[in-house]
């Protein structure tokens, strides 16, 4: 969806979901940060209608950059995958695939909360985002799609789509007071959206946890919530 204040807002619907049919369109969206949305953008989302936003950023990011025009106009939830910016910068592995596995550890509770919020019925469409819509958002998107039965190839393809708009996102982040210095010092690998990165993450989930479903149940997602997630997001032909 073309928006003035965000570059990476897109529908996760349409992917084949094995025996469950395909992922429902217009029900779940992923994005980069939404605090710069214009009034025109907000009206477009209200027409979908997007009624719930899940913000994966840290409390510091939210306090310093705000929530923008969406605050107070819909159900705005926060579920930070990392405790604070210091942890994001200092404790996370440099290798992106390893960093994504690290999110499953430090952000397990937040990720389970996100899955539960997405699975709730009668809430309209849900959008989730972090700052760039690449790493934290990429992990949640990969988990959701995998839990629905979407193939690893399609999960990797969805992740890779961010590459087309990442230069614009990084330019925006470089100008803000929270991420500017980090972006300027970021290695080339951290700025990349390599398909192999998501591929290695998916392999690690299989090898270390027995797959996305096993990870989710071990992390605290109930079987009922998992069934509800699939019922809400999958449509048979």
Key structural traits:
two-stranded antiparallel ribbon; 12 helices; 237 residues; alpha/beta; globular; single chain
Question: Would you mind describing this structure in some detail?
Answer:
This protein is α/β, with parallel strands linked by helices. Helix content is 49%, strand content 11%. The chain has helices at residues 39-47, 59-65, 85-90, 96-106, 108-119, 136-148, 152-160, 166-174, 180-185, 195-209, 212-219, 223-233, and strands at 10-11, 22-23, 28-31, 50-55, 75-78, 125-129, 234-235. The strands form two sheets. Strands 1-3-6-4-5 form a five-stranded mixed β-sheet. The protein has a two-stranded antiparallel sheet with strand order 2-7. The protein is globular. The two termini are 24 Å apart.
Helix content: 40-55%
Strand order of the largest sheet: 1-3-6-4-5
Largest sheet: 5 strands, mixed
Task: Summarize the helix and strand pattern as letters.
Answer: EEEHEHEHHHEHHHHHHHE
Structural class based on helices, strands and sheet pairing: alpha/beta
In round numbers, the mean pLDDT is: 93
Q: First CA to last CA: what distance?
A: 24 Å
User: How large is the share of residues in beta strands?
Assistant: 5-15%
Determine the number of helices (DSSP H or I, runs of at least 4 residues): 12
Quantity of strands, as a count? 7
* Overall radius of gyration: 17 Å
The quaternary state of the protein chains shown equals single chain
Low-confidence stretches: none
Shape: globular
């Amino acid at each position: 969806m073309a928006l003035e204040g965000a570059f990476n807002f897109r529908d996760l619907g349409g992917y084949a979901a094995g025996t469950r049919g395909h992922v429902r369109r217009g029900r779940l969206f992923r994005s980069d940060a939404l605090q710069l949305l214009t009034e025109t953008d907000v009206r477009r989302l209200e027409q979908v209608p997007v009624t719930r936003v899940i913000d994966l950023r840290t409390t510091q990011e939210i306090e310093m950059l705000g929530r923008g025009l969406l605050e107070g106009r819909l159900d705005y939830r926060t579920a930070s995958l990392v405790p604070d910016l210091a942890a994001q910068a200092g404790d996370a592995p440099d290798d992106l695939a390893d960093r994504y596995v690290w999110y499953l550890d430090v952000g397990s509770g937040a990720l389970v909360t996100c899955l539960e919020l997405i699975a709730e019925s009668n809430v309209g469409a849900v959008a989730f985002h972090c700052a760039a819509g690449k790493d934290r958002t990429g992990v949640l998107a990969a988990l959701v799609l995998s839990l629905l039965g979407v193939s690893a190839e399609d999960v990797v393809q969805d992740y890779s789509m961010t590459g087309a708009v990442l230069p614009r996102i990084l330019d925006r982040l470089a100008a803000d007071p929270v991420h500017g210095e980090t972006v300027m010092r970021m290695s080339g690998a951290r700025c990349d959206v390599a398909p192999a990165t998501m591929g290695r993450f998916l392999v690690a989930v299989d090898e270390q946890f027995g797959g996305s479903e096993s990870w989710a149940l071990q992390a605290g997602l109930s079987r009922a919530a998992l069934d509800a997630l699939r019922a809400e997001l999958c449509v048979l032909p």
